[in-house]
Amino acid sequence: WLLLSPWADRIFGFRPGVEARNWAAIASLLSPIAILIAWYAFHYSQTGYIFGNPEFFRYNVQATASPVRIVLAFLIRLWQAFGYMHMLVLTLLMAWAMTRPAIKDDDVERKRIGVRAQCIFALLILAYATSMALVGGAVLARYMLTVVPLVIIVAVSTLRRRTRAWPAFIVLTCASFVTACFLNPPYGFAPEDNLAYRDYVTMHKDAAAFLQARYARARVLTAWPASDEISRPFLGYVTHPFQIVQVEDFTVEEVMGAAQERNRFDVALVFSTKYEPPHPLLAHWRAWDRIKARFFGFHHDLPAQVAAQILGGRIVFTESSAGQWAAVIELERARDAQRNSRSSGHEMAGMRLDHQPNFPSLR
Description:
Strand order of the largest sheet: 4-3-5-7-6
Radius of gyration: 27 Å
Largest sheet: 5 strands, mixed
Structural class: alpha/beta
Order of helices and strands: HHHHHEEHHHHEHEHEHHEEH
Strand content: 5-15%
Number of strands: 7
């Protein structure tokens, strides 16, 4: 801000509280750069990489260095700051309030946040949105939580200054936010942004319990994050780790590639890696799908039934909820091994060992 203050004076026509550049203050504010350089030097000495391993750097920096993607990501970041999770309600109310004159109490206009402070807020929001558009592979809304409070502060101040019914508008805004916690938007989003994540955890926990009950020693084909869920017991999904064969997702290319190496796994845990609403807002705009696929990793996962056909197995567990699903596919080889194991157990113990927990399944 100290560096930009003369620019602000020329553009906005006011002095932002800095009569001359205070170079000592500027130097103190820039001092974290020296600390950052020292950290990168230490990181390089320990790992041989400056910014992280090559895959991390490619995903978060190199893959984002496209002018078109930067512009699109910037617009998405602005939406996440001003419209996401029904923030649009508060933004529209603020815009409407700006068309009204300030309320006077005893012939004195209600105070507003100072213009200087509002300009600082605006610069912070724009700078942060720009930085988040330049780097970062996944355009996740939670990364914008740093500046969303600034939007809320200005919006509430504007409503209070220009409308007498501002408490009712705040209640409406809060109610709309609570609604957004339960209702999924008509476009793709990260399930962890609202209570859809509860459905995700429940489905994956049920699928993991099913695997543990019926295929305790099986090699499992799956994708992240389920690969971590069933290979790291401390996460709480399983009590012992499974041997994992990992794929990126469940697109037709990945599943067909896995089918060529089906001797490496016994069962597959497939699930929706992307939330897809039942009635997408831009369902018929194919160009937008191509843009998302090119710049933001968008893809369509194969339905569980199709994946089972390609892998040469059958679905033995399935669960779905509000645009998300998970399924376990048993390969023929695993079914034969399980049948032989049961027969052997029957001969040795003289009793049937065909009891299975009561999990939802398709047979």
